[in-house]
Design a protein that fits this description.
This protein is an alpha/beta fold. Helices cover 36% and strands 20% of the residues. It contains twelve helices and 13 strands. The chain has a five-stranded parallel beta sheet, with helices on both faces. A two-stranded antiparallel sheet has the order 1-2.
């Protein structure tokens, strides 16, 4: 859950069109022993002063972990999403508009003196704001930004100094607030739109490799997010995990598929059993059968593989019903 942060230092930036977040624990957040261990590792690195980088394929919970860890630090959060169009000004700040002042001197009634000044107006962006006030920066998918845009992070993470552009007209450096912390996430380099990050930047952060969650955690998440019973969640997770091993890309389907199948099955009041056509349709649609390339006589056998996995894990299925009043 996200709310606008209310802390004394925020009064200084509330008119700058920046959204500062105060994170609260989601009621359906699942914290198994597996999740706790990863979070504890990340928090320990951050408290010592090192930035944390969650890296791994899509669907492995990187952003969820980043937000959960940021929430546990208890500081306001600046959320930034990587973008190929970003330059350093999108992170640090730039001149946005002008400020005009006009002075009229009519001290002597017969003489009027007018003086006008026009100055460019500098506005800090999210990175600068986080560094100045000691907020937690969550830079999601930071490798979608070009490496040259992220060069500004090098001195921030190492020397704790933010180098400011000359256009700002003030001090050339800002000392980074001691409370500043940074959490990064990234997808593998082979993903579309992802840039290779410079080694110097990667060397300044602790990278935690994210993979698929353990079975117990996937079951608990499916149960909590879809609102179905644990027994039904176990069957769905078993189907997805088994199907995941059939393709050449063993990263898909992810935990998202488990949640989708659970929600839609409950909504359509289908039975989790091999002879229920609705449940079979749901599994075929959601499991992305194009992720496996099993052919026989020029014919794709993906659907048959889905049915086989369903048959293996479904026994004496009953109609699924929503628990806890979960939304679909």
């Amino acid at each position: 859950m996200i709310a606008h942060a209310e802390m004394p230092e925020l009064e200084q930036i509330k008119n700058r069109n920046l959204t500062v977040l105060k994170l609260e624990q989601r009621p359906d957040f699942v914290e198994t022993q597996h999740v706790k261990k990863i979070a504890e590792r990340a928090v320990s690195y951050l408290k010592v002063g090192y930035p944390v980088h969650f890296s791994g394929p899509s669907g492995t919970g990187k952003t969820t972990f980043a937000m959960h860890v940021a929430q546990s630090l208890g500081r306001p959060v600046m959320l930034l999403h990587g973008d190929d169009e970003y330059g350093s000004s999108d992170l640090v700040g730039a001149d946005y508009g002008y400020r005009k002042s006009k002075v009229i001197d009519n001290y002597i009634s017969s003489v009027m003196k007018t003086e006008e000044n026009m100055m460019s107006q500098w506005v800090d962006n999210r990175l600068t704001t986080a560094c100045k006030y000691g907020f937690t920066l969550v830079y999601d998918e930071f490798t979608r930004s070009r490496p040259e845009a992220n060069n500004i992070l090098l001195t921030i993470l190492e020397e704790k100094l933010l180098e400011m552009p000359k256009a700002r007209g003030e001090e050339p450096y800002i000392q980074v607030h001691p409370g500043f912390r940074a959490i990064f996430t990234s997808n593998p380099e082979e993903y579309a739109g992802v840039h290779k990050s410079q080694d110097a930047l990667m060397d300044r952060m602790v990278s935690i490799k994210m993979g698929h969650l353990d079975r117990d955690t996937e079951i608990s998440i499916t149960e909590a997010k879809s609102g179905i019973s644990r027994k039904d969640a176990e069957v769905i997770v078993n189907i997805v995990r088994d199907f995941r091993q059939l393709g050449v890309d063993n990263h898909r389907p992810t935990i998202r598929a488990c949640i989708m199948i659970g929600k839609v099955t409950a909504y359509r009041k289908a039975c989790i059993r091999p002879d229920d056509p609705v449940f079979r349709e749901i599994c075929v649609d959601i499991l992305n059968t194009d992720t496996i390339k099993i052919m026989k006589g020029g014919k794709a056998l993906a659907n048959e593989q889905v049915y086989s996995v369903i048959e293996k894990h479904c026994r004496n299925g009953k109609k699924t019903t929503l628990l806890f009043g979960a939304s679909v």
